[in-house]
Specification:
Elements: H1 4-10, H2 24-35, E1 46-51, H3 54-64, E2 78-85, H4 103-120, E3 124-128, H5 133-139, E4 146-155
Helix pairs in contact: 2-4, 3-5
The chain binds flavin mononucleotide (FMN).
Length: 177
């Protein structure tokens, strides 16, 4: 049996990667996990750019070391760029009833699927929300009618140590009625 809680406790933002290259099959499995993610009206408002060639990896790393932050991404061996596919939402416009825009939630869920599958294969990931979006769009030929949502840095973790989770106490975030 696969223990989800074990995986959830082990997954953590990895900011120290080893020099080991990440196999394409492992990256592809992460994308497959994301593809299986549920979405509102099954709209699947996502696509993924897998950055694995060393030249592109270096360029993407540079674009994510934005405003002096995320310097550690220089050690990442690959990146996933999670793209928001607005076009996929148009036929599913009924999902916008009641003023709800579910796509961002769907994209977040797909991003976590990627990260958990990476963890299950012994890879480390860090989700990046702050980066030079115009530069990344240019670098990866992402057209204007798509959104550059998040970047996920990937590699083998330099250490197996798991940090304790820093989270709000459960009683501040749940009510049973
Ligand atoms: C949408 C999103 C954006 C994030 N952006 C960054 C980022 O730009 N740089 C970074 O180092 N971590 C980033 N993180 C990682 C969070 O800081 C991290 O997930 C959080 O502190 C919880 O720690 P854990 O992932 O180790 O459990 C981001 C996480 C999410 C979900």
């Amino acid at each position: 049996m696969c223990d989800y809680m074990e995986l959830a406790l082990k997954r953590q933002s990895c900011r120290h990667f080893s020099d080991q290259k990440v196999e394409r099959e492992k990256l592809a499995r992460c994308v497959e996990a994301a593809r299986l993610t549920p979405s509102a009206c099954n709209s699947q408002p996502w696509s993924f750019v897998v950055v694995e060639s060393p030249g592109k990896v270096a360029e993407v790393a540079k674009a994510t070391m934005h405003m002096g932050i995320n310097e550690y991404v220089a050690q990442a061996k690959a990146f996933f760029v999670v793209v928001e596919e607005y076009a996929e939402l148009m036929p599913k416009i009924a999902c916008l009833i009641d003023g709800q825009y579910f796509a961002r939630g769907d994209l977040g869920a797909a991003t976590l699927s990627l990260c958990l599958e990476a963890q299950s294969q012994g890879l480390g990931t860090c989700i990046l929300g702050l980066f030079d979006r115009p530069r990344l769009r240019e670098l990866l030929d992402i057209p204007r009618d798509k959104g550059v949502f998040l970047v996920v840095a990937v590699g083998y973790p330099a250490t197996d140590a798991t940090r304790p989770k820093s989270r709000r106490p459960v009683e501040t975030m749940v009510r049973y009625v």
